[in-house]
Amino acid sequence: MKDALIQKVYSFLSEIHNKFPYMGFKFGKGEVINTFIVEVTPLSDYENNKEYGLAEISFINEFTSDTGMEIMFVSEKSINHINGTPIFEINPNPINPKNQTPVI
After folding, report:
1. Residues 6 or more apart from 60 whose CB is under 8 A from it?
2. What is the model's pTM?
3. pLDDT tens-digit series, residues 29-48
4. Among residues 94, 1, 101, which one has the least CA distance to residue 49?
5. Please, where are the H alpha helices in the chain?
6. What number does CATH give the domain 2-90?
7. Using omega within 30 degrees of 0 as the cis cutoff, is the peptide bond preceding 42 cis?
8. CA dist 103 → 27, 30, 34, 37, 96 (Å)
9. Three-state SS for 30?
10. In this structure, which of 74, 77, 78, 85 has its CB flanked by the most CB atoms within 10 Å?
11. Model pLDDT for residues 47-75, shown as the tens digit of each residue
12. Phi, psi at 87, each rounded to 5°
């Protein structure tokens, strides 16, 4: 079950990364609350990218329905964050497409 769960999240985030290659993701278990967490960068897309936001909401509903577990998407500024080393990362240091420098 755990491998299938991780693969489900990885597949979704890979699909999003293919659409928005300047976005980055870290996936792991939460430190403040006991749930799965996806840290999303850059903050501007986490807050303003409507297409990404709709896909995130749809995935959360599907994930919860299919697994009975909770998953939370947060920005790098959130008090909720991954405890220890992430299970996996996709583009953890995204490049800002406007100036091709790492987003901090």
Report:
1. 71, 73
2. 0.84
3. 987 777 899 999 998 888 99
4. 94
5. 2-19, 43-48, 50-67
6. 3.30.70
7. yes
8. 18, 23, 28, 20, 6
9. strand
10. 74
11. 999 999 999 999 999 999 998 899 999 99
12. -65, -40
